[in-house]
Design goal:
This protein has seven helices and three strands; from the N terminus they run αααααβββαα. By secondary structure, the chain is mostly helical. It is globular and about 35 Å long.
Length: about 140
């Protein structure tokens, strides 16, 4: 599934006010608000009794969910996208110097203080599809270095 974050952003904001330009860092509060929504993931987590508090512990809780979504390819892609954006939200909120960046093709990544870019959406899609790597593992590896 190829969800253009830039298109979603533009639908929600008046042109000229807070425009997103590929390759540029995003306004931290606006990016955090948009990417933290993760409606499908939050709904699934709530159904399972998991509280998503935008912290590393909630990533571990997500890793323990039974993957009932794997039988539905459309749901799998959407949930994977949400899981990646949620992983990114946790990184941006808890790792000093981390922030959202929009690549030229409209793909959001997390940029660390070191300059390294983390494709959190790809990690989320892999997690939703195969369970590996676990979201908590990606967080641990990313937050260490």
């Amino acid at each position: 599934m190829n969800i253009s974050i830039r298109d979603i952003w533009r639908k929600r904001h008046v042109q000229g006010e807070g425009d997103v330009h590929p390759g540029e860092a995003l306004h931290p509060e606006r990016a955090a608000e948009l990417y933290a929504e993760c409606e499908l993931l939050r709904a699934r987590a709530e159904e399972a009794g998991v509280v998503l508090a935008d912290d590393p512990e909630s990533l571990s809780a997500l890793d323990q969910l039974l993957p009932s979504w794997r039988d539905d390819p459309e749901l799998l892609d959407w949930l994977g996208n949400d899981a990646g954006l949620y992983l990114g939200t946790v990184l941006v909120r808890t790792v000093p110097g981390a922030g959202w960046e929009l690549l030229p093709e409209g793909h959001p990544v997390v940029r660390l203080a070191s300059g390294r870019r983390v494709d959190v959406v790809a990690a989320g899609v892999n997690w939703a599809d195969t369970g590996s790597p676990e979201l908590s593992q990606v967080y641990a590896e990313t937050s260490e270095g």
